[in-house]
Design brief:
Number of helices: 19
Keywords: Methyltransferase, S-adenosyl-L-methionine, Transferase
InterPro entries: COMT-like, COMT_C, COMT_dimerisation, SAM-dependent_MTases_sf, WH-like_DNA-bd_sf, WH_DNA-bd_sf
CATH architecture of the largest domain: 3-Layer(aba) Sandwich
Distance between the termini: 62 Å
Pfam families: Dimerisation, Methyltransf_2
GO molecular function: methyltransferase activity
CATH class of the largest domain: Alpha Beta
Number of domains: 2
Bound molecules: S-adenosylmethionine
Protein name: Methyltransferase domain-containing protein
Strand content: 5-15%
Order of helices and strands: HHHHEHHEEHHHHHHHEHEHHEEHEHHEE
Radius of gyration: 24 Å
Shape: globular
CATH topology of the largest domain: Rossmann fold
Strand order of the largest sheet: 6-5-4-7-8-10-9
Largest sheet: 7 strands, mixed
Number of strands: 10
Length: about 375
Amino acid sequence: MNAEPRPPPARPEALGFLTRLALSPRFHRLAARIPGLRWKARAEGAALFQVISGFVQSQALVALVEGRVLHVLASGAKTTEDLSRHCAIPPAPLEVLLRAGAALRLLSGDRRGRWHLAPRGAAFLTVPGLEPMVRHHHVLYRDLSDPLAFFRGQTETELAGFWPYVFGALAQEDAGLAARYSRLMAESQVLVAEDTLRLVDLSKRSHLLDVGGGTGAFLAEVGRVHPGLKLSLFDMPAVLAGVPAALRDRISLHPGSFRSDPLPVGADAISLIRVLYDHDDATVAALLAKVHAALPPGGMILVSEPMSGGDRPDPATDVYFAIYTLAMRTGRTRSAAEIAGRLRATGFTDLRQCPGDRPYVTSVVTANRP
Ligand SMILES: C[S@@+](CC[C@H](N)C(=O)[O-])C[C@H]1O[C@@H](n2cnc3c(N)ncnc32)[C@H](O)[C@@H]1O
């Protein structure tokens, strides 16, 4: 007996007009003959093939990164044989990988048989946080190896163990783990801080508390832009142990867990940068209530993280971040409207939703305590 659930029978009349056309093989044959429609059909076909083949593209990138191909090319053009020696990949399969890298515009080949780093490959090596992000994708890739089991909740995900701090105080017991994860976060924080500070005005605030602020990378950037602002950082003790010595005079440190400890009072702005999406709704509700209690009247809450597109699902956040946070088993990628709704329900007013120009880096919601 077939254990798979059966789909209901197709009823084209229940579908939208364009979807109905796309279900018709006759329409596909017609579209291939009419110039305007042919162009549209080809573009749609290419987009569909991107979706189908995306995982192979990502794995080719992982091989180029872990084989150090892009790094070696950063020192100058090389032949396939040179690269084979440097990267310990036999020439024939390396040639396939290099051609894939060229198709992805990470590198390019010339007529003399040499390979060059392309601007996109150079940007990959330069933008902070991208390389560590790609290097830790093995974990998510394994979690998704049986995607249907994953979405049915039958997979014990490795990512749920990769971020064990979410479940309690494990990070406090494992300093190595805390250091590894803090490094990943701090490296990618540079872009998040830049975009957040473009979207939010902190110039009228006197004291900012960053809750779940890791090793202080966001506050370091805030301090550079607003030298007069008093800065405080609240995070788990094992994480705060990694705050660089150079920041310790500038920032006051408050070790604790927002699950079990109250937040320090005195700040007129509190930021939650890439914190809410790690947690389930109950934890988020309790945390927002603690932020509300710690702020004075007129105090501002600032939430910054990649957000779902809500009514218009976003190709970056509703695929990558939503599935990533689902794999964590405790997290959820929320839309700006949902976060604003939660802030309103906690008692905040003056809600502002500020979509980022790079939604895969961050978007912002702010509100005030009345
Ligand atoms: C995804 S990281 C973001 C770090 C930093 N804000 C950034 O954007 O780079 C989430 C942070 O929340 C902290 N965190 C998680 N649970 C916490 C808790 N119960 N109390 C305090 N901090 C917590 C983690 O230690 C971590 O630094």
